[in-house]
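We read letters as residues; the fold follows as tokens. A sample entry reads:
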Amino acid sequence: MAGRVAVERLAGLLRDARSAVALTGAGISVPSGIPDFRSPGTGLWANVDPMEVAHIDAWRRDPERFWRFYGHRFHVLDGKEPNGAHRALVELERRGLLDAVVTQNIDGLHRRAGTRRLIEVHGTIDRSVCLACGAEHPLPEVRERLAADPQGIPRCDCGRPLKPGVVLFGELLPEGAMEEATRLAAGADVLLCIGTSLEVWPVAGLAEVTAAAGGAVAIVTKGPTPFDGQAAVRLDGDVVDELEAVLAAL
């Protein structure tokens, strides 16, 4: 399907849908200057083993090493702003054409852009938690504690190391968030998958949920996905350009 035809097709699907839901991955934040995970040389996991630095066992075993890695993530995310793709989803929601955004991203950019119904299935970096006493600490405060600690470990008032409020490897996804995401996917006439490889489970299974319920899956991302052959629409250009073109076609 040629680019312009696909844009018009997606605009038509959104216009006619009783319910549309967006599922976003790392690719939607790349135009904001945030690296994705697997691009050679630049991806977050290109030069490190995530099981060594971003696993819950790594946090428990060696919080100093863990926070060296996560401190760098904080630095990478510092000052990053939502881009046109985030804003396009906000506009679709404002027009009543999008019910919710389900995101795998932890960067908080959807919230900053103004998305109202947001399900963060992998958590968010905007806060950190103490697994000992249950206290939560906002990101600016965690940055201060990180900088002040001689070992570079942000600590709770109770003295225990904080854990980022994100789902680490080895942890289960939050049950309530996944239940809500699955409900939304099952009821969606259109699931708009943006900047996601559809390879990370169980979130990737949301496309199957929508398709099994008779909904259409639309994919806007660079690079192949396992669901390409079943997609009603497939766009592979820049996510900002593609979504702004869809908005213009509505």
Summary: The radius of gyration is 19 Å.
